[in-house]
Specification:
The complex is a heterotrimer of chains A (about 500), B (about 300) and C (about 350). With about 500 residues, chain A is of the alpha/beta class. Chain A contains 17 helices and 22 strands. In chain A, the strands form 5 sheets. A 6-stranded mixed β-sheet of chain A has the order 6-7-8-3-9-10, sandwiched between helices. In chain A, strands 16-19-20-13-21-22 form a 6-stranded mixed β-sheet, sandwiched between helices. The longest helix of chain B has 30 residues. Chain B starts with 7 loop residues before the first helix and ends in a 17-residue tail after the last helix. The chains are: A alpha/beta (about 500), B mainly alpha (about 300), C mainly alpha (about 350). At the B-C interface, helix 3, helix 4, helix 10 and helix 12 of B face helix 7, helix 11 and helix 13 of C. Chain C: Pfam families: BPD_transp_2. Chain C: This is ABC transporter permease.
Chain lengths: ~500, ~300, ~350
């Protein structure tokens, strides 16, 4: 199944380079993908995977190099050119219109003329789905589909446009392990009909199912290997450029009694409940992991504990004191820090300086005031401290936050929230989209916080992170807790089943 | 005197006036609907309508032909919205601010142009206005005939634009693409299609319709231009689009409600019922606020309305 | 755009340096002047003569210069009002109506106090103006936070409504001047008038109040927790909410500050210039204030500068009309052209054409 057997590769990339400002995102990359091959692109965040796929799909124009499909050199200036050449792409964040039906989503932007011939399109799409054994109701609105089904729509959308090469960008990031299995079955069907697939991922177990794998690091192609001839450890080392020390989460015996205690917590929305009768306890110095596919109530649970949302029923007590009726500022005043999942949406004001962002929500505290005015000197000193303590890469506390990289922006939020968290730390996907160095740093900080006796709740989609840090893991599905697993009994299959909605026995 | 209001002839003339008064609002609202469905919030309707009213009047006065006036208004509306489109789509200037700027331009330029055109004259000339075009047979029907089928050509055009735009949005391929631009422009972008082209088209159509609505005020009704004569109709059209949940038929209904209030006000003044006229004139604006407050959620708003698309 | 790409160019969006922005904005303002010159031509006047008349009419003598400051006074207030709201990205288009509300509430508080000393009446009209504008804007804030009514729409509707309300009160209502035909109140009590600053000109204490307001707004915006919240709301209201600061409170606060500033414009016009409550004394300042705020870059001293330029336009235009026959209404068109060109120039600075060395 390698492309060196003399047959014409489906896709060939020769010497592709792409520069964004000072960053060489792709540096002289060459690779080939054969028809019916499953080819993995492996690399960390920022290694150049997205840039490469954007160039192949015509979303970005490369500075140098050539792209060939079935031996034909392409002049890619827009996705339209890529689609015409038989290239399809499923983006990590789906590009669907929630209020359109499945059929409309597939048909929109295709064809020509005034006429909208939905009947003909329906026939073709039904045939396509039948061949792939996909069961989708074409007349359902997309906002009523499950995430897995939305992904099928995305794949069918590409095939409807005649894709012979399909790029899948982090397709399993939003899927349960079971849905991921279903996806790999679908990929096998696609391969069976001769379609070549490029799978962008950083999950090692998925990489091992590919035919070949290309490893990217800092914009360069490090190696292309036949998967069967390599190992996970070898690939990891190629990807990171050094061997990664796995963090040993020194497990200390949690002291007796709960620091945080939640009982029957329920949050309602106009359409149904957002979280349903949740009970949980976290002891001082304990890390409670919450596993689950994003969107199953984790955000709402943390936001309710943090006082951002008012629960409809249930109680929250921290160190014996009730706080379910407090607002976010008062909860913070009780020694609670909260790192939200979407840092630029919920965590930072981009137009503010770092020093200003570090006191967000605390603008009325005596600490930051001199009479009726803000105490700029105190704010600047606080900013200096945070920059030094958390190694934030910037020139000073008066720098605007909008220009920070994802990892450094996260460090600003962590500096603010960790300073508040005397007793409870709520972490929602703290390492998503952050580079490896920063991940290690953040992990170490979380453990330090725990060692100080702070109770920690960690929400993550990455089971590896949860396994590394948590003392216990609970699993959420459709706004409820499905079950709990203690350290020592962590098991991906079991947790995966809970994530897909099976209850703990 | 109140009983006078319930006589058949009075009711018929009230309803006929409602449909007539609805014309400029409906034209502007249907045009704005198309622009907003493509994702662009054009708040410059008021200024565009004013300029349409003025240019229709000036062109009709200069040429002696009312249709030349209509054509002039359409051209003016298209040009003004082209400028608006360039600013908000190509240069990605904040849509609300740009819309306001267009209103100020329309308001300032129309007054200046009027004064400059008739410098030194104490009174500006009146143009003729369009006659009613009764539709054979249908206009003879009782009640419905005079209400619906004895109106001006522009009124028929406004009424017909409702099914026409409905058909375009929901039953044609470009209509589907246009709605997609307002809901999730990226879905077009990743197929290599131009979002700007669709939005320019929608905005220019919307501007031409608003100017046509403005033209109705001069060449089909007042026979003269007066400064600020649109008197908030452009803003009411925007309210109507929201109250009509961005759908053609509910927009027609909302338009008729607002114009009925206006017609009623004229009728009441006509028969001399002693309600202070200021209360009647303020009523549409109060109703507009209430209509939006009762509805609460922006049900039906295009998801990406007012957000300039930028490829990340 | 597509055509450009086929020629090997691509439009790129990037942050603009202050220098680059300055160049583009200057160029666009020059364009605005050229377009205005075209309008002079269209009216049959020589642009050079018209501009000269405009300048002379605005700054030719102490009397005209002081008139410029008189005309600038309400615009400083409405410009500040708009700037505060827009900094929070709250689109208060209602300064126009809030000017009316300020004047009306001040009059309501004051007109029973005729004969009292200025030491009592002046604080009453200033506080009345602040309260009237603030409350009327607060209504739009409540409509937004409690009933989800877009503030752009509600403030515009409120602008229309209050004009009719004033008309009702002045024509048949309790405020009409007994026996008079015009829609206006009786002349104000002498003790309520804003003191004149110098003999031989109409420049009144309202101008000093406006400059003081700019200084206060400057301090509030940059140095206080309130300003911090206003700027935070403009950057990311959601992040502020996550931190426990109530968006509803911030929106109400911003609107009330904004409306209160606009209300003072009404007080300045009624008690400083016209000495009567009437629509003609109050119309147009709110909308022009939006232009003033944007051209002043939403900064207090920028607003003061832009307001003086616009005050000069108003004052000079009358002289220009007499001198050259160009209708003074021209300046409203010129103001809008200035705004549009400024917006275009500011935005265009963020785009650049980039050569794409194309592979493919």
């Amino acid at each position: 199944m390698s492309a060196t057997q003399g047959e014409t590769p489906r896709l060939e990339v020769r010497g592709l380079s792409k520069r964004y400002g000072p960053v060489l995102a792709n540096d002289d990359i060459s690779l080939a993908v054969a028809p019916a091959e499953l080819h993995c692109l492996l690399g960390e965040n920022g290694a150049g995977k997205s840039t490469l796929s954007a160039c192949i799909y015509g979303l970005a124009v490369s500075d140098m190099g050539e792209i060939l499909v079935d031996g034909q050199r392409l002049d890619l200036r827009s996705p339209a050119d890529a689609i015409a050449a038989g290239i399809g792409m499923v983006h990590q964040h789906f590009v669907l219109v929630p209020r359109f039906t499945v059929l409309e989503n597939i048909v929109v932007g295709t064809g020509s003329g005034l006429r909208l011939d939905l009947a003909a399109a329906r026939g073709r799409i039904t045939d396509l789905c039948a061949r792939l054994h996909l069961d989708i109701d074409l007349d359902r609105r997309v906002d009523s589909l499950s995430v897995g089904e939305m992904q099928w729509v995305e794949i069918v959308k590409s095939l409807y446009l005649g894709a012979r090469l399909l790029i899948l960008d982090e397709p399993t990031a939003v899927l349960t392990p079971q849905e991921s299995e279903r996806l790999f079955a679908l990929i096998a069907e696609l391969k069976g009909s001769g379609i070549a697939i490029i799978l962008i991922t950083h999950k090692m177990n998925e990489v091992m199912r590919s035919d070949r794998v290309s490893v990217l690091r800092k914009g360069r192609l490090v190696a292309t290997l036949t998967t069967a001839d390599t190992t996970r450890d070898a690939l990891t080392e190629l990807m990171v450029g050094r061997s990664v020390a796995t963090i040993e989460a020194r497990h200390i015996a949690a002291s007796q009694g709960a620091s945080l205690s939640v009982r029957g917590l329920t949050l309602s929305a106009p359409r149904g409940s957002l979280i349903q009768a949740i009970d949980l306890d976290v002891a001082p110095g304990e890390i409670l992991g919450i596993a689950g596919v994003a969107g199953n109530g984790q955000d709402e649970l943390l936001e309710t504990i943090a006082g951002i949302r008012a629960p409809r029923a249930g109680t929250i007590t921290l160190r014996g004191e009730p706080m379910s009726s407090l607002g976010a500022a008062e909860v913070a005043g009780r020694g609670v820090g909260h790192v939200p999942s979407d840092r630029f949406r919920d965590g930072l004001a981009r137009d503010f300086t770092i020093a200003e962002n570090l006191i967000l929500g605390q603008q009325w505290l005596r600490r930051w005031r001199k009479g009726p005015l803000l105490d700029r000197a105190a704010m600047a000193a606080n900013g200096q401290d945070a920059i030094a303590r958390y190694a934030i890469a910037t020139t000073g506390p008066e720098q605007p936050s909008g220009r920070l990289s994802g990892g450094n922006a996260q460090k600003v939020i962590i500096a603010r929230e960790f300073a508040k968290a005397q007793h409870l730390l709520l972490l929602n996907q703290p390492t998503r989209g952050v580079d490896v160095g920063a991940i290690e740093f953040i992990h170490a900080e979380v453990l330090a916080k725990r060692d100080q006796g702070c109770a920690v709740i960690l929400v993550s989609e990455e089971l590896d992170d949860l396994f590394a840090l948590s003392d216990r893991i609970i699993v959420m599905f459709r706004n409820e807790v499905m079950g709990e697993v203690r350290r020592g009994a962590f098991d991906k299959t079991a947790i995966g089943r809970l994530m897909a909605g099976a209850r703990a026995a | 005197m109140l009983a006078d209001l319930f006589q058949t002839t009075v009711i018929v003339s009230l309803l006929a006036a409602t449909v007539r008064i609805a014309t400029p609002l409906l034209l502007a609202a249907i045009g704005e609907l198309v622009a907003e469905r493509s994702g662009v919030y054009n708040m410059g309707l008021e200024g565009t309508m004013l300029m349409g009213a003025l240019t229709a009047y000036l062109a009709a006065d200069a040429s002696g032909s009312l249709w030349v006036g209509v054509f002039a208004a359409l051209t003016t509306g298209a040009l003004m919205s082209l400028l608006f489109a360039f600013l908000v789509i190509t240069l990605q200037v904040e849509q609300i601010v740009t819309g306001l700027a267009m209103n100020l331009l329309g308001s300032g330029l129309s007054v200046y142009w009027l004064r400059a055109a008739f410098k030194g004259q104490s009174q500006i000339p009146a143009t003729p206005i369009f006659d009613n075009v009764p539709i054979p047979f249908l206009s003879e029907l009782p009640v419905i005939g005079p209400v619906l089928f004895d109106q001006k050509a522009l009124t028929y055009l406004a009424l017909l634009s409702v099914p026409a735009v409905w058909w375009f949005l929901y039953r044609t391929r470009p209509g589907l693409d246009l709605r997609c631009a307002g809901e999730n422009p990226r879905a077009l972008d990743i197929k290599g299609l131009s979002i700007a082209a669709r939005q320019y088209g929608a905005v220019v159509f919307g501007g031409a319709m608003a100017a046509l609505g403005g033209a109705f005020l001069t060449v089909a009704s007042a026979s003269r231009f007066a400064p600020e004569m649109t008197n908030g109709r452009g803003w009411l059209a925007i309210v109507i689009v929201i109250a009509g949940m961005w759908r053609p038929v509910p927009i027609l209904v909302a338009t008729l409600v607002f114009s009925f209030l206006d017609a009623l006000q004229l009728q009441i003044q006509g028969i001399g019922i002693a309600i202070p006229y200021q209360l009647m004139l303020a009523l549409p604006y109060v109703v507009a606020i209430l209509a939006l407050a009762v509805r609460r959620r922006h049900a039906g708003a295009p998801a990406m309305l007012g957000v300039s698309y930028r490829r990340e | 755009m597509r055509m450009l790409e086929h020629l090997g160019w691509r439009v790129v969006r990037a942050d603009a340096s202050p220098a680059r922005t300055a160049v583009w904005v200057s160029a666009s303002l020059l364009l605005a002047v050229l377009l205005s010159a075209l309008l002079f031509e269209a009216a049959g006047a020589s642009p050079a003569a018209a501009f000269a008349a405009l300048l002379k009419g605005a700054f030719g003598s102490w009397r005209t210069a002081s008139e410029t400051l008189v005309a600038a006074t309400p615009l400083i207030f409405t410009g500040l009002a708009t700037a505060v709201a827009f900094r929070a990205r709250i689109w208060n288009i209602g300064a126009e109506g809030q000017v009316f509300a300020g004047a009306m509430f001040a009059y309501w508080c004051q007109h029973g106090l005729a004969g009292f000393s200025p030491a009592i009446q002046l604080p009453v009209i200033v506080l009345g103006g602040l309260a009237g504008g603030g409350l009327y804007a607060g209504l739009a804030a409540i409509l937004k936070t409690r009933f989800n009514v877009d503030e752009v729409i509600s403030t515009v509707m409120l602008n229309y409504i209050i004009v009719y309300a004033l008309s009702l009160l002045l024509l048949q209502g309790p405020w009409s001047e007994p026996g008079a035909f015009f829609e206006q109140s009786a002349k104000m009590d002498p003790g309520s008038l804003l003191p004149l600053l110098s003999g031989g000109s109409r420049l009144h204490a309202g101008f000093l109040l406006a400059v003081a307001a700019a200084a206060v707004v400057q301090v509030i915006m940059t140095r206080t927790p309130v300003g911090y919240e206003i700027r935070a709301a403009g950057s990311n209201l959601r992040a502020l909410k996550v931190q426990g600061t109530s968006p509803a409170r911030v929106i109400l606060m911003v609107m009330m500050i904004s409306g209160a500033l606009a209300g003072l414009a009404g007080v300045a016009q009624v008690y400083g210039v016209h000495y009567r409550l009437k629509a003609g004394a109050l119309t147009g300042y709110g909308y022009t204030g939006i232009i003033v705020a944007i051209l002043g870059q939403l900064k207090p001293w920028g607003v003061v500068a832009a307001a003086i330029v616009f005050g000069a336009l108003v004052t000079g235009a009358t002289f220009m009309q007499v001198k050259t026959g160009v209708p003074s209404a021209l300046i409203y068109a010129v103001e809008a052209i200035l705004l549009l060109c400024y917006l275009a120039g500011w935005a265009a600075a963020r785009f650049r054409l980039k050569r794409v060395a194309h592979a493919g």
